Amino acid sequence: MFSDFFHSFYYCILFIGAFAGLIFIRRVNAPFKWLAVLLTATLASELIAKYFSTVLHVTNSPVYHIFTILEFIMYAIIYHYFFNTKFWTKMIIYSILFLLFAEILNTIYLQPFHTTNTNILILESLLLIFLSLSLFLQLRSNMAYENLLQEGVLWFNCGVLCYYSFSILIWGFHSIKVYELKNPPRIIYSLLLLLNGILYLIFIGTLILEYLKSKHSNRKV
Q1: Does the predicted TM-score (pTM) go above 0.90?
Q2: How many CA atoms lie less than 13 Å away from 100 in the CB half-sphere?
Q3: pLDDT (tens digit, 9 = 90+) per residue, 170-192?
């Protein structure tokens, strides 16, 4: 788990994120409660995956086949709260069903449980980028925020857009099977761990920001 700097950085941030989620989950608004759930669920899935690979000595790919769908559902719920319209609720439900259907077909015909589901990881990234860009358009026309830089929704959305844009490139790189070479270039996976850790740092900062805002509002009341 802590075999090098990149793994150590990723797992340390993830442990901190899950701990922060448990602390702030009852002190922030609904979308950020789900962000806390996402951080905790991500840590749980990573620990299960490690158990599969290091204790049972079997592939941990099934964990990611399942968690990719669960992860997207949690993201979808968060975006549902941010958009807060009937149109986007329908769009988000359709996107969940689409990804679930794609995962089933991908598992049956292309990438079974014993292989990495890179096709679905790329598809999930594309859907999240679409939701992120759409939310930015809504934020641009929304005058409800006095200072957008102090809003957790902005930083959450920036993190999603930046990370999942790179995620497409990284999983696309993985899909061309250079990892099957005798000495595959591992730096691409180290970069993924680094970017993932930075994403969770942004999420932790978002939870703290929303908690401080909530605390400040309560004082005013």
Answers
A1: yes
A2: 9
A3: 888 777 765 555 566 678 889 99
